[in-house]
Amino acid sequence: MYYTNFDAHLLYLQREEIVELMNSTRFRCWFLSVPITIVVVGYMVALAMVTGHDTSSIYAIIGLIGFFVLVGGIFGGEKFYQKYKDKLEEKRMATHLTPEEMKVFVRQHFEDFVNNKEEKRMATHLTPEEMKVFVRQHFEDFVNNKKAEVIRRNMTPDFYDHDGPGDKPAGVEEDEKMMRRMYDLMPDLQITIENMVAEGDKVVCRNSWHWKDPTSGTLMEFHGFVQWRFEGNQIAERWATVTEPREADE
């Protein structure tokens, strides 16, 4: 629908340019017929004077030539103008809709566009329970089993992490690199899902992360909340908040 509206606007702009071109073409046809007539007449007169021929018949021929050139220029320019003007008017008025029907059409267009956009955001065939199973398995592989590459399968190609590394927006590649760095810094890192709620196309988890500090051997932890949004059978968006790392409670 947007292309239709855009094309209509473009057609209007092109119409103004073409009409201007047609007007100038019509003018040129009229204007050029006059000097052409003068040049032809002048040439014939000069030729008659140089050769010494009787100029009366020459003038008659010249008059006829000038008349036909002038009339041809005028009518030719007018015919060109009218032909393309009619075609443009047909394109401009090519609708069987009444003004009221057009208003209803535009109103429905905006209604459909807004609703369809929302439907797209909700486009997942997974049930809440299936989404929870998906998220649980994602954490198991991505964190506990140290399979960072699963993020490329579990997330959509345009996956958007609102709270990525450094609290900055990120995509699949940045989140995978972050997780691999965490494997190096915390080799025994494990995540536990404490609670999980699913509704619509979203899943929210409350998680706890545990590991031993490689230097001191101290058991460390941090906690966080994560919200995932699904599209189809993949995760499309992530929001998260976590606490600062600290020594784990005994």
Q: What class do helices, strands and sheet pairing give?
A: alpha+beta
Q: Which range best describes the helical content: under 10%, 10-25%, 25-40%, 40-55%, 55-70% or over 70%?
A: 55-70%
Tell me the CATH architecture of the largest domain: Roll
Uncertain parts: 1-13
How far apart are the first and last residues' alpha carbons, in Å? 62 Å
What is the CATH third-level topology name of the largest domain? Nuclear Transport Factor 2, Chain: A
CATH class of the largest domain: Alpha Beta
* Coarse morphology: elongated
Q: List SSEs in N-to-C order.
A: HHHHHEHEEEEE
Number of helices, where a helix is a run of at least 4 consecutive DSSP H or I residues: 6
Average pLDDT over all residues:
79
| Total individual domains | 2
Give structural notes.
There is one protein chain. The chain is an alpha+beta fold and 250 residues long. It folds into two domains: 2-94; 128-247, Roll (Nuclear Transport Factor 2, Chain: A), CATH 3.10.450.50. 58% of the residues lie in helices and 21% in strands. It is built from six helices and six strands; from the N terminus they run αααααβαβββββ. Strands 1, 2, 3, 4, 5 and 6 form a six-stranded mixed β-sheet that branches.
